[in-house]
Write a structure and sequence with these properties.
The chain is an all-alpha fold. It has a domain of about 160 residues: Photosynthetic Reaction Center, subunit C, domain 2, CATH 1.10.468.10. It has 13 helices and two strands. A two-stranded antiparallel ribbon has the order 1-2. A hairpin with an 8-residue loop joins β1 and β2. α5 packs antiparallel against α11. The longest helix is centred in the N-terminal third of the chain and has 21 residues. The chain is globular. The C terminus is likely disordered.
Length: about 350
């Protein structure tokens, strides 16, 4: 009888373990790639069970056919074109159609332009936001090549056919704790959070580092400085941010760091420098483009604390180290880069001579 009960208990334990592991995307086997010397733990891991979904999320839509860049400028023909006025009329129409497909494939132009009103009208908040996002897109492609290189970005990099990008963040007030008080306080952590790959690290690693300029470095360069605030709490915040990087890019620590000397920049992989620029870029975009739009959005589009949606690493990367696996949509839409210089006007004497020749 005892053996039967033990056998039944063993079967039940195995079944429970099987059910738990069935829902775990990290169960073995996983693929590994050695990126450093053997025995140094310099290995990157990927999970073949999630690759198909990741590939689908990073599929690149076909580019619209190219159009002539000559002829009248959009800013000369249309009213209230504040960002893309340097494009030709044909280029402008092509980019507008592409943006409609990237951001609002169902509503198309009506997402930003009110029915029955002039296309120049700014009556819909979505148009005001879209204009600011175009400025941001150009800023990234022109001024943040240290991070995006020549691959660049387009609206699709973040939106992927959705009006609101899937991966955005708001200030997190944390879970409501019954009873409250000191005993019920979670101290900003101690609960599994999707933002930090379901760890119990601080569940808002974005406000201090991707909005504010909080120190991410953990290793001090001085012996017991009087103002040293690199304590365990600070380390937990940094680790929370690192978990976000790992989850958002689908990589592990050794993608950027050398396992034998995590703090050493000289021994780190080149990706660590690129990531540093990405942190600066995300912080800049949040403060210069998104936060100023807070009053533009309706209350329904703001977070629980009344703040605007902001970007983090996953907003663009969406599970891969290079967004869209490194395919450059910007190459097909160079209009989202630096504004075109106005056509050179002939000098007065040259114009008279040309008119006489005609």
């Amino acid at each position: 009888m005892i053996n039967n009960k033990q056998n039944i208990l063993t079967v039940l334990v195995c079944l429970c373990a099987g059910l738990i592991l069935a829902g775990c995307g990290e169960r073995p086997p996983v693929d590994s790639q050695q990126v450093g010397y053997r025995g140094t733990a310099m290995v990157n891991f990927t999970n073949p069970r999630v690759e198909a979904a990741t590939e689908a999320a990073n599929a690149v839509p076909a580019a619209l056919p190219a159009v002539p860049g000559d002829g009248p400028r959009a800013g000369e023909v249309y009213q209230n074109v504040q960002v893309l006025g340097d494009l030709s009329v044909a280029e402008f129409a092509r980019v507008m159609l592409a943006i409609s497909n990237w951001v609002a494939p169902e509503q198309q132009c009506a997402y930003c332009h009110a029915d029955g009103e002039s296309l120049a009208s700014d009556s819909l908040y979505t148009k005001v936001v879209a204009r600011k996002m175009l400025e941001m897109n150009r800023d990234i492609n022109v001024n943040w090549t240290a991070h995006v290189q020549q691959t660049g970005v387009t609206c699709y990099t973040c939106h992927r056919g959705k009006a609101v990008p899937e991966s955005i963040w708001f200030a997190d007030p944390g879970p409501v704790t019954a009873g409250g008080g000191v005993a019920g306080s979670r101290m900003g952590q101690n609960t599994p959070a999707t933002a930090t790959a379901l760890t119990s690290l601080p569940y808002d690693p974005f406000t201090p580092y991707l909005l504010d300029a909080g120190p991410i470095r953990l290793a001090t360069d001085q012996a017991l400085p009087a103002d040293n605030d690199l304590n365990v709490k600070a380390a937990e915040g940094t680790y929370a941010l690192m978990m976000h990087f790992s989850d958002g890019l689908g990589v592990n620590c050794t993608f950027c760091h050398n396992s034998r000397a995590f703090a050493s920049w000289s021994e780190s992989n080149p990706q660590r420098v690129t990531a540093w620029h990405g942190i600066q870029m995300a912080r800049s975009l949040n403060n210069e483009y998104l936060v100023p739009l807070t009053s533009t959005f309706p209350a329904s589009r703001l977070g629980p604390l009344g703040d605007v949606a902001k970007v983090n690493c996953q907003t663009c990367h969406q599970g891969v180290s290079k967004p869209l696996y490194g395919v450059s949509m910007f190459a097909d839409y160079p209009e989202l880069g630096a504004p075109k210089a106005p056509a050179a006007q002939p000098a007065e004497g040259e114009a008279v001579a040309a008119a006489a020749t005609d």
